[in-house]
Amino acid sequence: MNQTMISRLTALPADQRIDKTFRVMYSNASPFAIRGIFLTKYIGTTAGTSQIFNNDYPIYRYADVLLLLAEAKAKLAEDPSAEINAIRLRANGAGYTPYVTGSITANMNAILEEYLKEFIAEGKRWWALRRAGDSYVYANLSPTYFSPASTAKFLLPLSQAMLTADPLLTQTTGY
């Protein structure tokens, strides 16, 4: 997680999800660079000197159901604002900024933003992006993961086993 993503997630101070999800560790030397991110979601509870892993797995939650319903409504050109606002109310309290329905693209972007904040470290946002469509995937991923010649290809490394098995193969540029 880089500073841009941290700023994006912490832009709304009332959002209670972020404080419960991760902690940022900064250097105490100028310019206070980020030293690491500590995921606090699913760490369980502490009883004295014992760590109890009683919540260390993701499950389907009501927020997941609401966002899936919002996705369906957005794709059908219906108003998903009730579902988005229900999640924002729970996460931010009474001072939340209500979502007002817009175009299909605006609605999908609002839903994907809620997926980002609600499901950090659960792997659900990737599938939400895939369901939304390629244009949303490309808009939300760093261009460094895409081929310079075409935005339709991912550049992934070849395994050492593949390189050993076929001497004509060469490692992907950048790896």
Q: Could you say which structural class the secondary elements and strand pairing correspond to?
A: mainly alpha
Radius of gyration: 20 Å
The averaged pLDDT comes out at: 84
What is the element string, with H for helices and E for strands? HHEEEEHHHHHH
Written account of the structure:
- The protein is mainly α.
- The chain has three domains: 3-52, no CATH class; 62-145, no CATH class; 146-175, no CATH class.
- 42% of the residues lie in helices and 10% in strands.
- The protein has eight helices and four strands.
- It has a two-stranded antiparallel ribbon.
- Helix 3 (62-75) runs antiparallel to helix 5 (104-118) and helix 6 (124-132) crosses helix 7.
- The longest helix is centred in the middle third of the chain and has 15 residues, at 104-118.
- The two termini are 20 Å apart.
- The model has no long low-confidence stretch (mean pLDDT 84).
Tags for this model:
4 strands, 8 helices, 175 residues, two-stranded antiparallel ribbon, mainly alpha, 10% strand, 42% helix, single chain
Task: Tell me the layout of helices and strands.
Blueprint: H1 3-9, H2 16-19, E1 22-26, E2 34-39, E3 45-47, E4 50-52, H3 62-75, H4 81-92, H5 104-118, H6 124-132, H7 134-140, H8 160-165
Antiparallel strand pairs: 1-2, 3-4
Helix pairs in contact: 3-4, 3-5, 4-5, 5-6, 6-7
